[in-house]
Amino acid sequence: MKHTRARSPHSTVRMLALTSAAGLLVAGCSSAGATDSGTGATGKPAGDATTSGGPSAIAVDTGTAGKITVKAQGGALTSVDVRAPGPGKVEGSLSADKSVWTSTTPLSPGATYTISAQGTGGDGEPLSKSSSFTTPAAKSTFVGTYNVDKGSTVGVGLPVSITFNKPIHDKAAVERKLTVTSSPAVEGAWSWMKDRDGKDRIDYRPQEYWKPGTDVTLRMDLAGVDAGSGVYGTQKRVVNFRIGEAVTSTVDVVKKTMTVSRNGKALRTLKVSTGKATFETWNGTMVVLGKVPSIRMNSSTVGIFGPEAYDMEDVKWDVQLTPSGTYAHAAPWNEGKFGRVNASHGCIGMSTADAKWFYDQVRFGDPVTVVNSTDTVAVNNGYGAWNVDWET
Asked: N or C, which terminus of the chain has less Cβ within 10 Å?
């Protein structure tokens, strides 16, 4: 059976400068304030440009369309490094005489940028400047809900999956800030899709099932990342988890059996009853989404009414395989049909004793593959990525 379970228009201008025989000028503005430090040839702190005889400070808009300008008054710049956690390094261009550096990467909202600049004065003395500022927060932000818990142990078939609460228009920009690393290393890839509720979702899976004992790290450096249409990320996460033993199951709807293996060795072959005609169990690989010892199964939640309707209060040992309502569970009402007749509404039914045994073997992320059935489970109906060829 199946069951469903401001930026203100007038920014404050900060004037930051380094003075010596040739001054190095860095300017920025922020509703959160700015800090700076710098020294000239004497090693003494620099004064403000407006009070030390230097040129007027450069006004900088640090909103989403703002720029950062670094200027060596009467000298030349030798290096400029600007970066922020999440958005990363800011690129820029240097003027022909190397006296002015202007950022070319759009600034992200709600990000703290650090500026480190070095230069040479007109008489050859070294110049340096450090500064930081925070841009105003974005009016519209997005977050991603990920499917792995820090420190958890999961099955060998679990993709890393992130579902976003806002549309992601610049998918490449977001994907560049997501990484999955593992020890031992594996070949893997990201793939975008629409979740069942229409939200943008991205899944990462290795080419083959994870190896037992693999340590995996998901990194999300999305703070300040522009997803398009003025929507910016806010998250910076590092999630470490581990891959458990390889518990894999194969259901043959023709033989009406389910063979359960651990680390390549078959443990038991159970007699089952799968979906009957017009209610066939999905073909392909599904992944354990969770399990509960008892659940109410009501056919109205999966759109089954009329003569085929059912409503059962206490269905035991339920292992969920798809959000659409596919479970492996105890089905004592079908006693005598296990191994003989497919009589369910799409779930994988078995005796209460066998269902309890199966329930105790599996964990979140373990793959269950159905063979010799009809329609293949959709890639977004749970974790169906294993049913898509690797090149795709």
From this structure: C
